[in-house]
Amino acid sequence: MPVTVKILTPLKLVVVDCSGVVTDNDWLDTFSRLWANPAFDRSSDKLIDTRRVERFEVKSATIFRLGAEARKVYEGQPKSKTAVVAPLPEIHGVARQHQLITEGIAPETQVFWTYEDACAWLGRNPENPPPPAAEDRRK
Fold this sequence. Notes:
- By secondary structure, the protein is α/β, with parallel strands linked by helices.
- It has one domain: Transcription Regulator spoIIAA, CATH 3.30.750.24.
- The protein has 4 helices and 5 strands.
- A hairpin with a 4-residue loop joins β1 (3-8) and β2.
- The two termini are 25 Å apart.
- Mean pLDDT is 87; it is low at 133-139.
């Protein structure tokens, strides 16, 4: 499975771990299921980690669609943060699109080249949750 989600309730954190080839369907399914999960607390921070992605086949139209859905899901919700770790330029660009589309709603989204920077912005220890084995693939 290219995208896995861990809801870490005691930490008020959701970790979305991506690997291999991620498609439009994977991305849409992941967030549809997360938002429908009764264990999901909308005030939790999110950490989206794409360091192990080989190909990200998510189109801009999908990012816009999810951005519109996110506006509905998070309307009136307490502030939270979403940190996206995107070491590959093509993923970084798509993640920035999402950041711009959802600007002004909870959660606040920031995009980072490194896992450590993302964790620092979230105020989290990079070892808790432990990162998956991954190298920095930024070119």
